[in-house]
Amino acid sequence: MSKILVGAGGMAIDFITYYCPSYCVDLIDDFKVGNILGHPIIGTVSDLIKNKCWGKGSEIYNCVGSCGDNSTRNRVFNKIKAAGIDTRNLTMSSFISWDVAFGENVLANIGSQIHHGCMIDDNVVISPGVIICGDCGIHENVFIGAGSTIIQGIQIGKNSIIAAGATVTKDVPANQVWGGTPARFIKSHER
Asked: What span, in angstroms and rounded, lies between the C-alpha atoms of 10 and 113?
């Protein structure tokens, strides 16, 4: 099964460079034609939406993060999702182990690493440069700030916020803000 990568810019090149041995990747791009590192550009976002059958034999690889700035990414992601195509997540140039389980609407920003056995629930935002070590559980509606590290086996409760640069060495209960190195409780909050 081919994976479709939305966007054929620098992040797509990074993705293909790192993951090419594992995946057959086709690309969608509104402004480029031909191929990138031997991977064909098979159409535009509009073509994808009109010709939804691509989604049946292919997996839309959720790498809408490879196109444009944040507003462009969100616009493209929402447009594809509104058309009934299962894009599920935004991932950028990140290292994601093959056995990571994702929910829906997960944003994994550039330079993030998510290692073996992790479970990432719905509506999670993983900022740039975050490292999530193996066997962690990140529950729904969590925000993880830039440059944070989540140590092996940690559980982050739903609706929690991890401040930028934190090193989380203990489980974080739901509805809490943690920060620092090592991370500690800062305050409770409701979302």
From this structure: 18
Greatest alpha-carbon pair distance for the chain in Å reads: 52
Q: Is the pLDDT of residue 97 over 70?
A: yes
Q: Is 96 domain-assigned?
A: no
- Evaluate whether 138 touches 144 at the Cβ level (below 8 Å): yes
Domain containing 122 equals: 112-188
Please report the DSSP string for the chain in residue order: -EEEEE--SHHHHHHHHHHTTT--EEEE-SS--SEETTEEEEE-HHHHHH-TTHHHHEEE-SBGGGSSSHHHHHHHHHHHHHTT-----EE-S-EE-TT-EE-SS-EE-TT-EE-TT-EE-TT-EE-TT-EE-TT-EE-TT-EE-TT-EE-TT-EE-TT-EE-TT-EE-S-B-TTEEEETTTTEEEEE---
Residue 152: how many other CB atoms lie within 10 Å: 14
Note the pLDDT tens digit of each residue in 63-83. Answer: 666 666 666 777 777 787 788
52 & 10 share domain: yes
What's the angle, vertex CA 56, arms to CA 51 and CA 62, rounded to 5?
A: 85
Q: Are residues 133 and 78 in the same domain?
A: no
Cross-strand bridge partners of residue 146: none
**Tokens 């990568």, residue?**
5
